[in-house]
Amino acid sequence: MSKRKLRMGMIGGGKDAFIGAIHRIAANMDGQIELVAGALSVNPEVAQESGRMLFLDESRIYNTFDELFKGEALQPADKRMDFVTIVTPNFAHFAPAMAALENGYNVVVEKPVTFTLEEALKLKEKVEETGLMLLLTHTYAGYPMVKEARQIIREGSLGKVRKIYVEYIQGWLSRLSEREGNAQASWRTDPSKSGKSGCMGDIGTHAAHLAEYISGKKITQLNASLNIVVDGRMLDDDGAVLLRFEDNITGTLTASQIAAGEENALKIRVYCENGGLEWQQQEPNTLTVKWSDKPAQTLRAGSGYTDRLSSFATSNCRTPGGHPEGYLEAFGNLYRNFALALRAKIEGVEPKAEWLDFPSIDDGIRGMAFINNVVASNNSDQKWTDYVI
Fold first, then answer.
1. What residue ranges in the chain does DSSP mark as E strands?
2. What is the tens place of the pLDDT at every residue in 73-85?
3. Whether 43 contacts 70, CB under 8 Å
4. What predicted TM-score, i.e. pTM, was given to this entire model?
5. If you compute the radius of gyration of the chain from its CA atoms, what whole number of angstroms results?
6. Distances (CA, A) of 141 to 67, 75, 196, 335, 365
């Protein structure tokens, strides 16, 4: 294996940016990656100050992503970045991602992958044309017990999937926070920066991805109702969707950001012929398996019975049982798997299946299609809308 760290550049994520710091922590967690360059803000002063705060070489603190790619091309091969992470608001994902691929760089990008479905499809063409890798940071796919749930469904002991319930409930937008100086609320509720959907685009896409990831079944039709609860808001802050999946499976998806008092209550239940699964993000180390003919099981990440958990779960566990692993560790798992797969590719060796288990451009396209179809269904008099890509 290579004796060097993978070199990362970053676009966006300067000082005081929430998600940029999360990405840097996650990338640094396993010692596989080092940040070597960045265009960290559209404000040149902030970009320069942010780079200095992160101890980047002055010559590799750039003011725009175009400067980043031009500057890195002049670096010797043993110093040039291997991939770039894009942590800008939604409307500013596509251009730097496309430029990265065109300049030969692998990509990590925040979700949603682009601003529109059309952009996502163009990005996939470029990924396939270049043969480069793209990680989409659907964080919740990085939790060990989410991976265990997926493997239990795959191995078949619960029988065929019959019903899926998923909900993502928050309360942070229960007031008109975008008019109170909240920068996160400001861009997330602005259709020119966030896209055609607010709540469903922001967190409903996470719920939809989790449902498809665990069940292994794709959504085929939906029936959506979106609400704007807080007066003066421009995008939906609440909604519900009836779902139809492959194989005549039905489900429901609820997402809300106006449930005052809630924090980050993502929860999924999948019911099959012989029992069901339940997982919630605020108690992430626990997966409950409910059987129709025997007592329920409580499976725990990092436990002493790891031989009973799948390799997909155990390879993403970091601490002994009873030591909580959460959001940062899940994020770190995505980066580690991406880094191991990229390192294998660089060295010309076959990556393990566990390393390739991270969301890709295809997941990004599914997410953009979900937004389009939910909005189309909400605006239509037709009861059900086919899931169109």
1. 6-11, 33-39, 83-86, 106-109, 134-136, 161-169, 219-227, 238-245, 250-256, 265-272, 275-280, 286-291, 297-300, 385-386
2. 999 999 999 999 9
3. no
4. 0.94
5. 21
6. 33, 35, 25, 12, 16
